[in-house]
Amino acid sequence: MTIHDTTPLPDDENLEYLLHLTHTKLLVAIVQNRIDTKELAQKQLRSRGLNNEGLWVGFDYER
């Protein structure tokens, strides 16, 4: 899935909508590499009990 993909997607999977509600200060920090978005995404997956492939591994899985 890339931002250039023209396949219709539901809004919650559409990259065009990913950052629309994100505060400007956070967007600037991301652009300036002061926020590690990959680390944030991995943390969110772990909090859902998922591994880096999106597969359920449970909440006690060692990474």
Low-confidence stretches: none
Largest sheet: none
Distance between the termini: 25 Å
Estimate the mean pLDDT confidence.
89
Count of discrete structural domains: 1
Strand fraction band? under 5%
Going by helix content, strand content and strand pairing, the class is: mainly alpha
Number of separate helices: 2
Helix content: 25-40%
Counted beta strands: 0
What is the CA-based Rg, rounded?
14 Å
What is the chain-wise order of helices and strands?
HH
- CA-based shape: flat
Give a structural overview.
The chain has one domain. The protein is 30% helix and 0% strand. It is built from two helices and no strands. It is flat and about 35 Å long. 0% of the residues are buried.
Summarize the helices and strands and which ones pair or pack.
Blueprint: H1 24-31, H2 37-47
